[in-house]
């Protein structure tokens, strides 16, 4: 017996037994998940482990490419993880992103929770508790209504005038990277709406403080870990790691500093902005609408409101430049409208072709490419002919749906704003429901109206003052390159629709144009 013990065999056997016992819960859970979704087609590797999806993300493949490939191979309902199901069915939108029965956000949103001063701070985007979301929304939803946002319209007007003056002074009659100017404008504007202060990007004409870089890195981080959030939590958000961190996100630090400055000035009444509305809600209900709530809301607004708005502007302009007939039609609509300068929201909101151009660009090139994942509540749900058990993560395959002829009509790969105008009321409603640019249902982006006001005011203002053309360096529109940043993403604007290879959300990094005064 003593000799056997020295050989180590009993010790090895014990280790093997203990390891096997430790793995049993994992094996049982995997088999249970596989059995629950056995009738739903999908790659066999994806049905066994989320590392299949993680590997796709880490290898630099865009999710929309994955989603379209899955749709073509497996059909409109496909399992893309052991507990994940993707639907290419417009009817699924009304179930997954409905306004009545809450399908809470999935655990993948936990990856985006920032660390501020050594503590996790839930933002409005990352909060998964629908009761808490409803309580916060009840107190601040009025601040995001179109009528309320008109109180902040002067911030947008001032920045439009400032940007166009800067362009007039230094950027006429030469090839310029317009994408850079547009992100400077969008970020300065959203910060002024959020807390009456900006990052000074337009004046500095540089991201010398790395504000934009930090925001992009944050979204890249979310993309990299969202397939395996439990692993991200284990490595980066365990109690020991969190205590060692101060602030994991530069924009979170900026938000915290601005809130502290406002509190030192006396809080409410100092400025007409969103922060003032939050502080008013805090004064009425300090226990439920805490300072952490204010910080989370502020982070959400500035993190989501800069890149998406500017990139949508850039993509819209790129499609207009490639389609001169559409550009001419939009310019005619703007000229005939007799707009003020800067244009008023009440004026530009009545321009149907402008609205259609932005929506069509967003349909062809959605900027947030990862799935809007939700969790099926108890007792489960019937979706697209399948019973989906409670706890399953589900999402709509917008990347396949955005090119579905039954929904959008013929030539779905073409930029045709008229499809939003030349349709009956029922068809328009179907298209609007399928447009998940700002998500949908109970968790639709609260800043949706901010983005629309910015875009609809800025694009007409630009076209009122300048003729925008492709740069001389571009030999032809068919060879027009639209470069995107995020781990070496590039898109080629060719005869086909914009084609992307890369790994994360689309941030337009280069849009070469030439401006001449009108």
UniProtKB/TrEMBL annotation:
It holds the Pfam family p450. Keywords: Heme, Iron, Membrane, Metal-binding, Transmembrane, Transmembrane helix. It comes from the Eukaryota. Heme binds at residue 445. The chain crosses the membrane at residues 12-31. Its cofactor is heme. One of its GO terms (molecular function) is iron ion binding. Belongs to the cytochrome P450 family. This is Uncharacterized protein. The lineage of its organism: Eukaryota, Fungi, Dikarya, Ascomycota, Pezizomycotina.
